[in-house]
């Protein structure tokens, strides 16, 4: 277990050798620093994502005290109110109801209608990068594309979009392991500000509905069910955060991997038809979300080890995506990999509702860079963010030669 250290910069820089050790040690190991059971193998992670004895929350069945847990500090309440009413952190029947209602406004047709906008915006962002002779791929392309797309879907006016990425970053700090009080305070402040903004926007959309997703969430109903205002706010924040955090990090992680594998990059440049399989392989190769948690609602057993009710399981997505039992030569980047059942978008009832949009965005930015910046090259060695759970870079300096 000494190899697994999510606060060690060397581990964060390259956790995959440690994952190999974890998989060799067994199917489940208890990790005392976070009071979690680590699950590193693909088959187990895939099965547990569908296991109904586990849950993203336990509050639909137990009080904190009955579950052997301590309630969050009162000063963290704004974050938990925002977070706990989003469908990602709910279980049936609330999850089922909210996802059904959200799906009415987040249809494949709605997503597909965004394709021309996504393609045009990706092209414009890359044009700017080329005109400047390079820049930071993170801030110039990777961030503005998905933030603008999800803001456009939600109906957030362009003049109001500047705080969205900072709010998201502050809130997502709480998803790291053992976040500090400073991180929690920033997340609470961002939760309050984001909630206040969306409450005003929802009131405006009630008065003057549009064609946007927030108007759709207000109108969505089924057999008398409607979203409460808090559920609408939490859903909008979830769609924004989940709708761009993974895409941003998948973009920069992916291009950093391509620069480190020049033969694969050359093959991609020679054949743009590889873009769809490249998107899938890059999400597998350096997974943007490394860990996903579940509460044990009823005792389960993994490989003869009883995991009691009240325990927390940490499913290691990054490790599962490098499991040699599933992926041939998993440490090798192979953009032509055909059998690629990666779990970067999760599985089961919490499978990412925005996965089709993420794929469109990743393919659009990659295609634009291949077509408009065929000589794109790394300008400086990037610095890895210190975060473990949400894996990304501080920036990715590039130049167009």
The tally of helices reads: 17
Through-space gap between termini: 45 Å
CATH superfamily: Cytochrome P450
Low-confidence stretches: none
Task: Explain what this protein looks like in three dimensions.
- The protein is an alpha+beta fold and 401 residues long.
- The chain has a single domain (9-400), classed as Cytochrome p450, CATH 1.10.630.10.
- It is built from 17 helices and twelve strands.
- It has helices at 9-13, 16-25, 42-48, 77-84, 94-105, 108-113, 115-131, 137-142, 144-154, 164-172, 181-207, 213-219, 229-260, 262-270, 275-285, 317-320, 355-372; strands at 29-31, 36-39, 54-55, 134-136, 221-222, 225-226, 291-296, 300-302, 305-307, 312-316, 376-378, 397-400.
- The chain has a five-stranded mixed sheet with strand order 1-2-10-7-3.
- Helix 9 packs antiparallel against helix 13, helix 13 runs parallel beside helix 17 and helix 15 crosses helix 17.
- The protein is globular.
- The termini are far apart.
Q: What structural keywords apply?
A:
401 residues; alpha+beta; Cytochrome p450; five-stranded mixed β-sheet; 12 strands; globular
Give me a quick take on this structure.
The protein has one domain: Cytochrome p450, CATH 1.10.630.10.
Topology:
Elements: H1 9-13, H2 16-25, E1 29-31, E2 36-39, H3 42-48, E3 54-55, H4 77-84, H5 94-105, H6 108-113, H7 115-131, E4 134-136, H8 137-142, H9 144-154, H10 164-172, H11 181-207, H12 213-219, E5 221-222, E6 225-226, H13 229-260, H14 262-270, H15 275-285, E7 291-296, E8 300-302, E9 305-307, E10 312-316, H16 317-320, H17 355-372, E11 376-378, E12 397-400
Parallel strand pairs: 2-10
Antiparallel strand pairs: 1-2, 3-7, 4-12, 5-6, 7-10, 8-9, 11-12
Helix pairs in contact: 4-11, 4-13, 7-9, 7-17, 9-13, 10-11, 10-13, 11-13, 13-15, 13-17, 15-17
